[in-house]
Every structure is written in structure tokens, then in C-alpha cells.
Specification:
Number of domains: 1
Oligomer: single chain
Structural class: alpha+beta
Radius of gyration: 13 Å
Number of strands: 3
Strand order of the largest sheet: 1-2-3
Strand content: 5-15%
């Protein structure tokens, strides 16, 4: 499955390019790195710094300059693959963490 990393509301999640929706809840950086190590092992961790540089610079790890607004504009993250707003995505995938400014 193709995924990118996105930063929303100061937290991180994986976004599926197949389902056009998050495949994880929003996590702190520490939680995300733990998840990523478990999911992708050492090989994934070796490439994570380059991906996270793009996330911190642009809000996501996509190549080619796609913004988070571009990604969210075409999401199918809601029930029945309906489109959600950025705020609805943060609420639905926010997990148990307090929100932070990004």
C-alpha cells in the first residue's frame, strides 16, 4: 500500500494513497516513530529522516510539492468514503491526544 506521512495539528499520521484517507490516528512524534519502527523495521527507519524532512518543510512526505490542502481536497476519509474537512479529519483521527498548534 502506498502511504505518505502527514503532519496535521502538530501531530503525525500515515495517509493512504490508495484509499485517500488516514490509515493511522494522529500521533506525537515519539509515538509515530515507535509505530513506524514496528511497521517498517530498520529499513523503513533508515529512510525516515529524509521523509520527515519533507514533512517538516511542507507538511507531508509526498514528492512534487503536493500540499496537505491538495491531499485533503480529494479525501475519502469519512463514513462510506465521504469527504471530510481538515477539522473533521483531525477530530475523527485525533486519537486520545490533546491537539497542538502546528
Amino acid at each position: 500500500m502506498g502511504t505518505c506521512i502527514m503532519k496535521l495539528d502538530g501531530r503525525y499520521l500515515e495517509w493512504s494513497t490508495i484509499s485517500d484517507a488516514p490509515v493511522t490516528e494522529l500521533m506525537t512524534l515519539e509515538e509515530f516513530e515507535t509505530h513506524y519502527r514496528y511497521q517498517y523495521g530498520q529499513e523503513g527507519m533508515d529512510g525516515l529522516p529524509r521523509r520527515m524532512k519533507r514533512v517538516e518543510d511542507r507538511g507531508n512526505s509526498f514528492f512534487g510539492g503536493m500540499t496537505n490542502d491538495d491531499v485533503i481536497r480529494h479525501n475519502r476519509a469519512g463514513e462510506g468514503e465521504t469527504k471530510l474537512t481538515r477539522e473533521e479529519i483531525i477530530e475523527q483521527y485525533g486519537g486520545e491526544n490533546e491537539t497542538q498548534d502546528s
